Every structure is written in C-alpha cells, then in structure tokens.
Amino acid sequence: DRFDYQFEQQLSPHPVPIACKKEGDFRKLEDGAINYLKITDDIDVAPIIRVIEGIDRETWAESQREIRYAVHADTQSLKLMHDRDFRHVYPTTWPLFDTFKDAISPILDIIEEHFGPDGEVIRIVLAKLKAGGVIPPHSDAQYSLRHCHRLHIPIVTNPAVDFFVGGEKKNMGVGEMWEINNSTTHTVENHSSLDRIHLIIDWAPGFTVREEERQQILHRIFVE
User: Fold this and answer.
1) Side-chain half-sphere of 190: how many Cα atoms within 13 Å?
2) Contact between 192 and 158 (Cβ < 8 Å)
3) Closest by Cα among 130, 119, 114, 131 to 205
4) CA 128/CA 130 separation, integer angstroms
5) Which letter does DSSP use for residue 72 in this model?
6) Which pTM value belongs to this model?
7) Which of 17, 56, 132, 197 sits between 20 and 30 A of 62, alpha carbons compared?
8) In this structure, how many other beta carbons lie within 10 angstroms of the beta carbon of residue 187?
C-alpha cells in the first residue's frame, strides 16, 4: 500500500509483470534528459547494411506506411515487429524479422542491458526517408507510443539530415543509439541527395501492460 504496488501470480514464463507501477510513473528519458538521450555510439551497422542491400523496391513498398500516414508521405518502411493493436505483450514478428535477426541481435542485447529485464521490445521497423524528404512536425499521441522508449539507430545517414525534437536539433551519426521523446513535437529534414535509413525500436516497461492485455494473457493460458 505504501508504494502503490500491485502483485499478481506469475502464470507463464513469458515476462508478465509482477510488481506494477502506476502508468503515471512512466517517463521517456533518464538522467534529466528532455528531448534526446544518447545510449551508445559504437554499434556496428555493417551487417544490417548488407541485409538491406538485398531488399528490393517492392518489399520496401509493402507496408504502405507512406500511404496510411500523411506525415510519413516521404518515407518507406520494413516491418520487422509490429501489432496493429499496439499491445505490449506477445509482440508479432513479421517474416523480415528472421531475415534481419542475426544482424540486429547485438542491438537487442544492448537494449536489454540498458533497460533491464522488466519489459520487452514491442516494435521494430526500418524507416527510409527519401532524399530531399521531410517528416513534418508532429507528436505521437497514442497510448502505446507515449508509454514506450523510442530508440533510433541511424544505419545510413549524413550530416545534412536534421532531426528536431522539442525544437532541439541533432545530426545523429551512423552507429549511434538515441532515445527520443516522441511525445513532444518532432520533425526530420533530409537536405541531402541520399536516402536516410534508421532502425527504430520501441521498448516498453512491464508495468505499461494494460489490464485488458493481462486478461488476454490469462485467456490464452487457461482457455486456448
């Protein structure tokens, strides 16, 4: 009662949260950071680039992200892990996840070491911003997007790509990992003649799993 924790029986080896903070306890960045937080700057992206070189134009166009979201009209993406219901448990991996698995595994290890075991990666996407393209100013309002840690790892970029979060500009370098505060206004401008590609990963703490998602877990265990 003193710390407002809730406890529930561990029913599955899957990481169902036991001690749960309130949703209001969630904050995006650590160490007093407001817009950006650099987690590391020495990721070897060469294995990812080699896999990307084998991806054809048709595969890049399959997600239709640029059609479904006006703000992403200048982008294309490859979905590796994503759920339409934006749930924080049992994330769905897409066929391309296996294609990139070996290349991105070291990055997933860094994320787990940074955030700890109480939570998991819930979304992974490779996003391409075309040469001369812009992602207009916007903020992410959906529950899941606000209650996750949004990580950007530049795979292909250059100094002419400007990333703005909360009005603060960064030129992210290849092999760096940045957490951004996507709950505030952010925008990207690619002033170069080359496409920019970022690996975007969302990690969600266990306590952000909503009650309806816990009920779905119980249903799968005892009914299905």
Assistant:
1) 23
2) yes
3) 119
4) 6
5) G
6) 0.85
7) 132
8) 16
